[in-house]
Amino acid sequence: MKRKKQKRTTVRKSTMKRRSFLRGVLTTGAATTIGLPLLDVMLDSEGVSFADGDPLPVRFGVWFWGNGVRPEHWVPTGGVDWAPSSELRPLAEAGVKDWVSVVSGTEIKTATHPHHSGMAGIMSGAHFHQDATTRDTIVSTFAHPSVDQVAAAHFEGTTPFRSLELGITRFRGTDEGTTFQHLSHNGPNNVNPSEYSPSRAFGRLFDTPFDAEIDLARQSVLDSVGAQIRDLQSRVSRSDRARLEQHFESVRALELRLAAGESSCMRPANPGDFPDVGGREQIREQNEAMSDLCALALACDLTRAFSMFFSTAGSGVIMWPVGASNGLHGINHNESAPFPIAHAATIYTMEQFGYFLAKLRDTPDAAGGNVLDRCSILATTELSEGRTHSNQEFPILICGKGGGALRGNVHHRAVGANASEAVLTALRGACIPAASFGVDEDYLYRGRTLFSPGRATDGFSALLT
Amino acid sequence: MMAMIATLGCEGSIDDPPGEPPEWERDPVEREFRPAVPTLRRLTRVEYEQTIRQLFPADVVVPSDLPTDTILYGFSTVGGSELTLPPLEVEQYEASARALAEQVIVTRAARDVFFECDVAEASCFDAFLLRFGARAWRRPLTRDEVTSLASIARDVGGLLGDPYRGAGYAIAAILQSPHFLFRVALGEPDPEDESLLRYTSVEMATRLSYLLWGSGPDEELSRAGAAGELVTDAGLITQSERMLADPRARETMLRFWEEFVQLDRLVSAGKDPDLFPSFTPSLRASMHQEVVALFADVYDRDVDVRTVFSTHRASVDAELAAHYGLPAPTAPRQTVTLPPEAERGGLMGRAAVLAMWAHATENSPTFRGKYIRTNLLCQEIPPPPPGVVTELPEATGTETLRQRLDRHRTDPSCNSCHVLMDPLGFPLEHFDPVGKRRELDEGMPIDATGDVDGVAVDGAQELGDALASSERVGACFARRFIRFGVGHLESRAESVEVGRIATAFASSGYRMQALIQELVLSPMFRKAAYPESGCAEGDTNDCSNACGEGLQRCEGGAFTACSAPTAETETCNGRDDDCDGHIDEEITRACSGECGPGIETCVAGSFGACSARDRGTEECGGATAHVDDDCDGRVDEGFGPQVVNSTYTNARTYHPRCDGSTERIGLDCNEAFHAFCSTAPETCGTSGFGPLENSGDVAIVACVEAEVLVTSYAELAVFHPDCASTGLPCNSAIQRFCNDAGFPTGYGPVRENGAEVTVACVPGSVAVETTYTELAMNHPGCTTSAPIGPTCNAAINRFCRARGAVTGFGPVESSGNTAVVGCVR
User: Fold this and answer.
1) Model confidence pLDDT, tens digit, residues A17-31
2) What distance in Å separates residue A113's CA from the closest CA in chain B?
3) Whether the complex's predicted ipTM surpasses the cut of 0.90
4) Which residues pair with B593 in a beta bridge?
5) Which helix (H) or strand (E) holds A141?
């Protein structure tokens, strides 16, 4: 019979920029299973920051759904403590309205092609990027990082995962480039794909056995891979150099995570996966599993930047729970007034979002209160409505309390304002000191030079404390 | 209802308007051919899997959690040239590489097969690295590369105490390398045209093998590559003919066909289960197989590939035959000839394609027409600008779908685009959204007339015949194959060569073998332009680093060496050797003290004190608590056991559930008291138990010097079959487990973590047999009817103290009135 001595935690060289969370654990001398994600003992006596003075985390997230809303049922009335519209009522019913602010009336200032402009416009504050060598098809990508990656860059080095991307309903769009297939971008064709398998997401976040020696061995391999990438970079074209730079960053990220040692976090049960039943996507079950994983990952401070991709831009998701038989994108195009399925689909989508917010609200945070109190979440889509594919009257919600930065429960109407202002507000709501969001640029589109005024330098102070 | 696309301003922005020659035939500007720059091509998912299978023994399982291809411009190969590796995918490749390496080192037999010698011998392992590395990286390894990989194996092998595990990490390193995950081809100056690069013979071996086999070069191709044969037409012809005869080439061409048809869409095509209950997963799979077989047939016979659009042949199983209204086949899968009255024609009339390009409940002549227009004719349909209402006229209930679409097209702004799609889709109106034949739509007869660029057709067969005789369809097919093969969107500067290949393809009678051969010999496949990075003559580049200023000048399309000080490996010398702005960062070395190994960390040019301790006098208190100060293998000996007056308020900080109300005794409190006794500065020893006595917030705890061992319930069950948690059976099991390990007594579990169960064996203790009658005299609550718990803890504590011990725990065994307790002295 084999017995081993109890492992002692060994502290190795520290390579993360700031490892406040892990450092907190190590000072307790007990890098072991713990009942709550963040322990009181890691905090200072007032419970407002880590024992070593680092501030407690505020997180930034994106919750995205495709194909817009029905504006006549979406825009609420009132300002402070707004009165819910029928499509926003699910959020009130989920008991999270106090955390939800609504921005109405803004528009994408960089609109040329509805889905592509809407997606790249709201997520990156810029015109989409189209491969210049052809007009063969509409295939586009992002020229600039998406907002979740702006936040990820700000938080970089504080948590084991730079960002987290989870997908709910699967990609049912067309071959029109990364703009249609992915949310999180770091530049042209540089995407963070969403994980659509709850069990794989669980494995990546929580089922990572810690073994100091094995992890050291893995680091030595990654180190050599990094050196090979660096060496190769000097010999390739400029665009390949940029691709290899991301490869290097990705390798480095894993290396740093291993170097940081064991994370101390409650391990949830593996949620399993949710294959189609009778040809139908298990939308609610998938949403709940992903929401639960995301909430715990945030509570454990595994990441501070995330995106929940409920459906893709122009998604053909079949919203069967509301009686839809065809894909949502097609229904949006073809349904006649009063658009019953598009309307019901939006309500259903908000019910799923309501579950997510309520989950964050019900997840305790080390700082006291709950995780939703310490989040700023931009919830939005790529169109105002599917029927006209308009990029005006853009649907935007800013949710959470941002650790005190966001007021919550305010409806702010800003007709004709740049939607990037709302995005900037959400970033500032996560205490990210961004001077601006988006890009003003001249852009060549179909042989014409357009001016794309995507940049915003002001947020909506009505939403901030 | 499928008005997918309607637009204003459609006219005048179409790449190849119907009726006009393709762009490459009419664009007068770009007549001169210029190849693309070399691009790193990421292995697609299939290429990765096939390459792994080629490198590893047949019984090795390729992990399934691998990056998913992003399809760009229709093909995974284009996505592979454009996308990079985000953190998630690096993690997937890392996990895959480790899982693969693990499989070849896991057993003695697997090792012998894979390494062919003893890897502990440097000569053996270097030879292995040269052999395996060259196959994985598709080129010979440099001496430095071998040295670097060998040092990984040596270091890790030493760390883990097993040279084969070290070798496994070297294999994992090879499989995570950019030289494996990317196909690196940089080219060399082209002797025929100094303004261009050509791919080297070794690089051509890789290009050829992935084009034709979707995998790395075999031995013969590597030989030809190394021998310089693949920069000549003759060498390429010899090798490609040999490779095309191999079944792997057929598989690769069928994969191209699947991507060309976009068959992956069939998997996600949702159909209303109430309307189409027959659209089962097995029927879907059979439909998929039929479309693959269509192309396999023309490929195997090497006839005009356009035959796929008109052929009557169909590969069916019983389910698909029934779907098509055909008699059941006599074999599980059979190729049959569709009867003329089926009127399906070839590809466009087959169920998979009809289903992919339809909605979940109804047809879409627009989708079907759009597919033909954009993918079979290579013509563009622009999207509607924002704000255009794309809604179809409301259904009247007295018209067919076609009639509704006809009304839609009376609006000129809609017509300009719909006229490009609908008339190509109408001939397929005899087939419903799952590709079943139908005679009526909305109860009315179907009008299946349409036109293919001015040629009137009626029904799917005539549509198929028109496509099968179209030159444009042939040219478009060539263009798509070239795109798949070169892995990038054909540029305008390449269009003259694309046109030349298309023409040669036509002259060959549109035979696939001829198209492949044309591409293999084409400069599009063999030549490259100098990368733009490259630079313009005289450009300068600031390459300064932390060690100093640096500049590079552009000479002959490439930058000269950087003039900044060279970065070297960081050593402990007070200098920033690696020029990253940090001095002596992260440098440690092993050292040893009297008490064992430790590390020394470099600070400002010299190594600091060794972290290992020197021998001292055993002490307890503050920093010396729980430390083996005198290095005798025992911790805090002479300072225990201690009885500590503690509280649940204190215990809660060690385990949140042991708070006096949620739990007062049990596993979580065991863990709390154990942690308190083994870590708190005010306690001595390595473990503890309790509560000996408890009342309100007070919990009295004993801290002892114990040997803390990790076991499992499975192992403990060997000692007592009913041991699964806290309680009498486990008390017995742990007692016997500790006896077996040479200790007089033991207690626990003090901690559970997954399958691991931690217990404490107590050297300075003695097992004392007593009775519940006697224990009850110490505390009346400890009886045979309550043989374990807080009252027995108190009884045993008092019982042991009365016998001169400090305290005690148990019962470690019990049977009837008999109880054995552990007393600690």
Assistant:
1) 222 232 222 222 232
2) 5
3) no
4) B596
5) strand A140-142
